[in-house]
Amino acid sequence: MNSTEGLYPFNLTPEQEERARELHESSIIIDLLFQGPLSPKAIPEAISESIREVCEPYKEDSWTYSAMPSKIIHDMAARGEISEFKEEWYRSGITAGNRQLDVSSVDKILISMGDIQRQFDANDWLVKAVTAEQIRAAKRNNLKAGIVTAQETDGLGKNLELLEAMYNFGLRVLQLTYNNQNYIASGCMEEANGGVSKFGMRFISKMNELGIIVDTSHCGKQTTLDACRLSTAPVIASHTGVENIYPHKRCKSDEEFQAIAATGGVIGVFAMPWFVHGDPNDTTIEHVLDHMDYLVRLVGVDHVGIGTDWPMSDVAWSLVYFKEHIAPRIGFAKGDGPSTETVKGLETYSYFINFTRGLVARGYSDEDVRKMMGGNWLRVFEAVCG
């Protein structure tokens, strides 16, 4: 990236620009819901079209057709066929980002374990981080750290031994439910707002015992409050927003934020245009920073982080198909994303310095910027995982 490409117009002075650059380069930066490092704008058009040709014969099976492009991209990246995979991660300055398991079924668990492990095995610059010290070591050695996470638990059923096996593989962050109801708890799209079940109490206890961080991002309000009451370790929301700024079901209330903070946890603000601002076609990084500012005022700077969840490692035509055919079937309201819109200032992950620049523009100290850019996540990771 050249000296000005992708820089959002915060109107920083030359001294502020230099300070932001030095902060970004020296800090441990963690995006705890990291769909990157690739994005539609970073994937060459020729590769996008070649993927379309491979996928077309599967179009009658909408689930397979929608999921194929992302998997093909990861396979190509692991084989070294997309140089942008490494280049974008290094340009971003992100030290650690999650590598996401699919826990929707036992079959998917096994497949995604293999896919994730292949990323680590094929890229000597990418290490699996299961402790905070491994993240610090990655920064010292100019490597990148992958944190194994999952956003759903359906494939586990009530099998706590399988949860332990996933921990042994490297799972360190697990969301209790994805939008809907499961054995453990109610998601944020459930009207009943049922909270954590009796089995869910045992499940959270097992997560605490193993050292897996309890994530409440897609959980309903009562589930979030119950998790904070039940967990003996810090609870997080890896990617959410402020309900009082934009009243979306994927955003959370002040009561939930205060409960998470009271556990010692952290709230990660996402960069999804449909969830942080009323116009997804005109959502900027300033809108994302507004959510972070609000949280700092509400619960303090020690409890605020970043979990962008966007943009996806996918191609544009696939994202349009997902919005039209898949999103309504997994809890998204009609027209409610995800699709091809991006936050202005975060069109690709290589523009991640705009977070640091924006926090500098808003008057935060170096220490506070370091905390929100990754230090707070590192503290929770160390407290729960070691």
Main pleated-sheet profile:
10 strands, parallel
Order of helices and strands: HEHHHEHEHEHEHEHEEHEHHEHHH
Number of strands: 10
User: What's the overall average pLDDT, rounded?
Assistant: 95
Helical amount? 40-55%
Strand percent estimate? 5-15%
* Shape category: globular
Low-confidence stretches: none
Summarize the structure in short:
The protein is an alpha/beta fold and 386 residues long. It has helices at 14-26, 45-55, 62-78, 84-92, 106-122, 132-140, 160-169, 198-210, 221-230, 254-262, 273-276, 285-299, 316-326, 353-361, 366-385; strands at 30-31, 96-101, 126-128, 144-150, 171-175, 213-215, 235-242, 251-252, 267-269, 304-306.
Can you offer a commentary on this structure?
The protein is an alpha/beta fold and 386 residues long. The protein has helices at residues 14-26, 45-55, 62-78, 84-92, 106-122, 132-140, 160-169, 198-210, 221-230, 254-262, 273-276, 285-299, 316-326, 353-361, 366-385, and strands at 30-31, 96-101, 126-128, 144-150, 171-175, 213-215, 235-242, 251-252, 267-269, 304-306. Helix 6 (132-140) links the parallel strand 3 and strand 4. The radius of gyration is 19 Å and the shape is globular. The mean pLDDT is 95. InterPro entries: Metal_Hydrolase, Pept_M19. This is Dipeptidase. It holds the Pfam family Peptidase_M19. It comes from Paenibacillus allorhizoplanae.
Task: Name the features.
alpha/beta, Pept_M19, 386 residues, 10 strands, 10-stranded parallel β-sheet
Write the layout of secondary structure elements.
Layout: H1 14-26, E1 30-31, H2 45-55, H3 62-78, H4 84-92, E2 96-101, H5 106-122, E3 126-128, H6 132-140, E4 144-150, H7 160-169, E5 171-175, H8 198-210, E6 213-215, H9 221-230, E7 235-242, E8 251-252, H10 254-262, E9 267-269, H11 273-276, H12 285-299, E10 304-306, H13 316-326, H14 353-361, H15 366-385
